[in-house]
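Allow me, if you will, to draw on your knowledge of protein folds for a short while. I have a record of one protein: its chain in single-letter code and its fold written as discrete structure tokens. I should value your view on which stretches of the chain appear to form regular backbone elements. Thank you for your consideration; the sequence and its tokens are set out here:
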Amino acid sequence: MSGNFKDEFIEIYNEKITRPGADRLLNYLTSEQSDFFTAPSSTRFHGSYEGGLVEHSLNVYHCLKDYLQRPRTKELYRMDYTEETVALVSLLHDLCKMNFYTVDYRNAKNAQGQWEKVPYYTINDQLPYGHGEKSVYIVSGFMRLTREEAFAIRYHMGFSGLEDKNSIGKAFEMFPLAFALSVADMEATYYLEGSPN
């Protein structure tokens, strides 16, 4: 993993997220108890490589910032959030993927047609608390979230999640930041990162 992603994450985090407890969460993320900066973002799709999670988090941050700069979102939809809120929900939306993946091995043929053991990521969920809700739970253990921040992180998967579709629609209606974060997450996933295949 390029140290540049870790450095950029820490720089944005320290500059933008200053509420009580933020320093303790960052200490945890950089500690040996966390693999946040080396974890993949998925097992075989976007970011399925070492450091994919922190890179994805930064991509979502930049996509969300760009989305919220649109005149329509500000003037018509009244989406106006602090820099802290934008950084917090985007950089921390996928904390649920920290300490979630492990490396295993399987047999595959190499370029010469010979069998060899190759590494791959598999899921080893030690805290089976869902996806977005697990991220909210982890962040809340260190600092307070506003209701809108919590709903944004909780529903960032949008309609591609497993939740009741009516609940997702209602959350988007009540908390526009949830919709905006979902759009940024999809943009990062499908257009910036894509599948390695």
Notes: The mean pLDDT is 91.
